[in-house]
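Supplementary Methods, section 5.1.

A reviewer requested that the exact input to the structure prediction be made available. We therefore reproduce it here, unchanged from the version used in the analyses.
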Amino acid sequence: MKILLVEDDEDQVLLTCTALEATGLKTITIEHVESGRACLEYFEESAPGASPADLVLLDLNMPGMSGFDVLKERLARPQMKSVPVVMLTTSKSPSDVRRCYELGCNTFMAKPVDFEVLVNSLRQLVEYWTRLAILPVPSR
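The structure derived from this sequence is encoded cell-by-cell as follows.
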C-alpha cells in the first residue's frame, strides 16, 4: 500500500513515518509532500486513470492550501476522487470534524500524544483500508 503523507511540520512527518514503520506492516510505502498544493500536483502528475497513492494522510492546518481546500479540490480530480483520505490532525474541534466529513474525507483521526496510541491507531487504519476497503485497481 502506497501512502501519501501531506504534512508541513517536519516533526510530525518524522513521528508519523516512525509510527507507520513501527506498525510492523511490511507492505507500506510512504511518500511525503509538504503542502496541499503539492498534494494536488502529486496526483496531477500521475498518468491518466492511474492513482499514485492508495491512501492519503492529510493534515488539516497547513499554510497556503489547507486540508479543507484539498478536500474541496479532490472530487473534481479523477486521479484523487477514489482514493481514501484520512484527516490526521491535531484539531479536535467538532466543527472541523463535521466539515471534513461534509467535504468527503473518509476518516478523521486526531493526532494522539502517546506514541503507542499513534502506532496502534495507524496499524488499525492501514489494516482497515488494505483488508476491508475497496481500493482503486492500479493501472499497469
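The beta strands are 2-6, 29-33, 55-58, 85-89, 107-110. These observations are discussed further in the main text.
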